[in-house]
Request: fold
Amino acid sequence: MAVALQKGGLWQAVREVWNGGGVMGRSVNRQIKQQGAKGVDSEPLQPLLCMGDVCKMLKLSRPKIYDLMNEGLPVIRFGRALRFSPTSLQAWLKQREEIA
Reply:
C-alpha cells in the first residue's frame, strides 16, 4: 500500500495541492488573484488592550469592568486571557453615551 501511494495517487495529489498545483490549489490561487486586496482589511491592526489598560483608561476597578462585561462590554477571549479591541470599546462607549 505504501509503495502504491509513493508512486502517485494520494501523495501526488497532496503534493500538488501543497505546492499550489492540482485542481484545488489552482482554484484557491485563482480566487486569491481575483479578490486581490478586496478580502483583506486595508486598515492596520490596532494592538489589543488588556484588563489593566481598560481599567486605567476608564478609571474603573477590575470588578466593575467584569460587571460591564456582563452588561455587554465587548471582550475577546484567548483561553483565560481577556483582550479588548480599542475600536469596539469606543463604539460601545459611544452607544452607552447615547443611551444615557
Q: What stands out?
A: The CA atoms of residues 69 and 75 lie 7 Å apart.
